[in-house]
What we know:
Bound molecules: guanosine-5'-triphosphate, 2-acetamido-2-deoxy-beta-D-glucopyranose, magnesium ion
Strand order of the largest sheet: 3-2-1-4-9-6-10
Helix content: 25-40%
Oligomer: single chain
Structural class: alpha/beta
Largest sheet: 7 strands, mixed
Strand content: 5-15%
Distance between the termini: 92 Å
Amino acid sequence: MMTPMRYVLLVLIIIISLHYILSFSHEGYGNATSLSNIRDQLHFGGEKGAPPYKTPLPDEYIHPPKVANPLERKANATFVILARNSDIQGVAMSMKQAEDRFNKEFNYPWVFLNEEPFNDEFKKRTRELTDAEVHYGLIPKEDWFQPDWIDEDRAKAAREKMVKDNVIYGGSLPYRNMCRFNSGFFYRHELLKNYRYYWRVEPNVQFFCDLHYDPFLVMQDQNKVYGFTVSLYEYAATIPTLWQEVKNFLKENPGLMPGDNAMKFLSDDGGETYNRCHFWSNFEIGDLDFWRGEAYSKFFDYLDSKGGFYYERWGDAPVHSIGAALFARKDQIHFFNDIGYRHEPFQHCPQGEAHSKGKCWCSEKDNFDYQWYSCLKRYDALFQ
Ligand SMILES: Nc1nc2c(ncn2[C@@H]2O[C@H](COP(=O)(O)OP(=O)(O)OP(=O)(O)O)[C@@H](O)[C@H]2O)c(=O)[nH]1
Ligand SMILES: *[C@@H]1O[C@H](CO)[C@@H](O)[C@H](O)[C@H]1NC(C)=O
Ligand SMILES: *[C@@H]1O[C@H](CO)[C@@H](O)[C@H](O)[C@H]1NC(C)=O
Ligand SMILES: [Mg+2]
């Protein structure tokens, strides 16, 4: 029940509220809080100019991006991303970080490769992330799809068995095409022919630290052929006969290995068995001419002819790693310690001085380098 006293109180509250509401449109409260003025600014009527947030700030507030290249020389190099149109969000994320951490200072071009044409959204969203050149390439069919001479019945049986055995990507044909392309074809693509060095980037990776030197110049000046950040063991189920084929190849093609190669990274018994160590190829900074050279070309053609990319599920990571470890000198394989990097589920986070120098945002405690599943200790041992 409403007593007379409560009735008076309610009327009072209404009067006070009305006073407040009306006073908001009073000039004394300033135009930011004036309802009629906000309506003008937001342009509800459609008859006034653009809302203020659409008017560019005067130039005096804006400073141009810093472009610093103290060495004033550049390598003959490019970024390369293999991706589908549907990968665009992950590509944008990776590319933005590579630009912010490094490339906005250096402006190396970007090459995008796909077995289907890139669509307008993919091109727009990648192009607007960089000041550097961008190139979009179509992969020739014969470099991508399963060749005719592969026995599809045998390949299919292998895929089905791997699904049953829960092998990751075991049932996927596109994944196999991708692994074979990355192993033996990307460096022969028309768009990469004019470059010597490449930095491979994948969708959804992270770069944690500022990089104030040019890793391509390190490769060039120090005669490196392969750079990595993470190394680990391969799944045995994906490469049952790979090492036997490697040994067959070496027997048939003597003289391709330099004396100071990195066989010890791959094998603990002088080459008899493979310890499954490989460099994680979702990150690579490498020399395209090394892949295009005699030793690796012969090596890839030999492996390809055995059909293991389809009858098993040979990855480009072990194939590249074995190629680099056997046909380059061990000092031509470089660990990029300063590059903080994550591809799920592992990351390399620079430690100590390298961490602070790079202003890294990864936690030093989350670092794969000497975890039990990492092969970095075997790389270290090459030089001890
Ligand atoms: N154009 C194209 N690119 C592909 C295809 N499959 C994979 N890729 C690209 O090849 C690279 C490796 O593929 P991922 O799916 O990242 O393989 P992964 O790194 O082994 O596995 P996750 O990253 O854990 O899924 C990435 O750059 C992909 O964008 C494909 O069918 N077509
Ligand atoms: C509010 O806007 C009017 C009209 O644009 C202007 O004349 C008045 O000075 C402004 N008042 C304040 C407090 O800025
Ligand atoms: C870059 O490297 C490629 C491959 O080695 C070579 O063909 C090309 O001439 C080089 N370009 C320049 C400008 O040095
Ligand atoms: Mg990946």
